[in-house]
Amino acid sequence: MSELDGLLIRDLRVSFDGFTAVDGVSLTVPSGDIRFLIGPNGAGKTTLVDAVTGLVRATGSVRFGTHELLGRPVHRISRLGVGRTFQTATVFEELSVLQNLDIAAGARRGWAILARRRRGVPDEVAAALDTIGLAGHAEQPAGTLAHGQKQWLEIGMLLVQDAKLLLLDEPVAGMSHEERDATGALLETVSRDRTVVVIEHDMDFLRRFARTVTVLHAGRVLSEGTVAQVQADPRVQEVYLGHPVDTGSAPSGGE
Ligand SMILES: Nc1ncnc2c1ncn2[C@@H]1O[C@H](COP(=O)(O)OP(=O)(O)OP(=O)(O)O)[C@@H](O)[C@H]1O
């Protein structure tokens, strides 16, 4: 797929009261990629995603497909197919899985269409239920789902909104091994016709599921490439371990 379908960030800068949290970042994430964004605490990962989704003011350029995102309000960026999850799942706990997905789908359809009485489960909702593996839990209140299932429901809510760029903030934090595996498989499925950017500290998950990796440090891109390339980069080892290593072994952790 063409890079033009993906995310193009050029010279992105975000400052808070004179402190530069994102300092001239350029990134290209082609459609179909699963890009992991890693870096020590305070590297600027969340701020970068905040800038892409319109939550903080930034300078430079963020293009998704043919659209410039910088300067647009949050809801317009969302309408352009940019979806995001946060570290804590934000589902409607009292509503069923199906109702959560239906509301998310309705947000895209618009109130006029939402107000029409529909029979049965809309196609995109049924498809999302299958993709996120919750078809057997459709009627269950979201609040009673397991931790991992809530994260998958949130991803499903982005799918029914037809998000083409998914920005996921630590999606496997607090998950069991089985839930991590299932989440990795889910990312592989959704990335077939979407662009996926994952902020993650879990290095084992990264090794297994990242297609490409960007390492941020102090608001700048420190290193970029495949998992193997980034692991072998002495600058990355320095940041994670405090010193370069000879063996080419992986960074031991992000915290
Ligand atoms: N609203 C804000 N006002 C002032 N400083 C901020 C604000 N948001 C973030 N920062 C600062 O910007 C820097 C980057 O923060 P950010 O949360 O983007 O890092 P991060 O890489 O996501 O870190 P973590 O892995 O801990 O989530 C930090 O020094 C943080 O304190």
Task: Name a few traits of the molecule.
single chain, 255 residues, alpha/beta, Rossmann fold, 6-stranded mixed beta sheet, 4-stranded antiparallel beta sheet, 35% helix, globular, binds adenosine-5'-triphosphate, nucleotide-binding, transport
Outline the fold blueprint.
Layout: E1 7-16, E2 19-29, E3 34-38, H1 45-52, E4 59-64, E5 67-68, H2 74-79, E6 82-85, H3 97-109, H4 111-115, H5 123-131, H6 147-160, E7 165-169, H7 177-190, E8 195-199, H8 203-209, E9 212-217, E10 220-225, H9 227-231, H10 234-241
Parallel strand pairs: 3-8, 3-9, 6-7, 7-8
Antiparallel strand pairs: 1-2, 1-4, 4-5, 9-10
Helix pairs in contact: 3-5, 3-6, 5-6, 6-7
Bound molecules: adenosine-5'-triphosphate.
Adenosine-5'-triphosphate binds at residues 16, 19, 21, 39, 41-47.
Describe this structure in words.
By secondary structure, this protein is of the alpha/beta class. It has a domain at 3-88 and 163-241: P-loop containing nucleotide triphosphate hydrolases (Rossmann fold), CATH 3.40.50.300. The chain is 35% helix and 24% strand. It has a six-stranded mixed β-sheet with strand order 6-7-8-3-9-10, with helices on both faces. Strands 2-1-4-5 form a four-stranded antiparallel β-sheet, covered by helices on one side. A hairpin with a 2-residue loop joins strand 1 and strand 2 (19-29). Helix 3 packs across helix 5 (123-131) and helix 3 (97-109) packs parallel to helix 6. It is globular, with a radius of gyration of 19 Å. 42% of the residues are buried. The mean pLDDT is 88. Bound molecules: adenosine-5'-triphosphate (ATP). Residues 16, 19, 21, 39, 41-47 line the site of adenosine-5'-triphosphate. GO terms for molecular function: ATP binding.
